Amino acid sequence: METFLIVAGVIFLIIVFMYNTLISKKNQVENIFAGLDAILKKRYDLLPNLIASVQEYMVHEQITLEKMTELRSKAVTSTLDNRETIALDKQITSMLGNLMVSVENYPTLKANENFLHLQGTLGELEEQISAARRAYNQSVTDYNNAIEMFPTNFMAKVMKLGRKEVFSVPASERQNVDVKNLFQK
Question: Who's near 61: CB < 8 A, 6+ residues apart?
Fold first, then answer.
């Protein structure tokens, strides 16, 4: 009887440990995502100022600016889940790249002090977003490992925990930059 109680106690402690580990990793993912979301919100708040600065110079790139405004509005006004936020972030990152390439065609805009300040602020935010993405991806990887590895996978299945998506680089940003082509513009 005493042996049975000891074995039952050890099994109970193992279950409690696995449960607490999974909850800890799930909460860590949510916490880091909330930090990333706060930085993304800063970026969304900065975008209208950047767009307003660029807009009068870039009449020809109106479609890019309108799409950027639309994406920013979607990010600010709707309640997105993690997966949708990641997808929207990919679109905005891609559009920002197009915007900065378009700005290269406007020497007066590039020299404007307000634009330079906005560009510098945006650059700082992008670095913070990059760091937050790395932290988020690491916590998601730890979480996904915990819910898929033995023996915590059984507990995760009981708790109905599912895989989380990591931030990934869009295929368009993985291509090599054609520097020769950039200098010819």
Answer: 99, 102
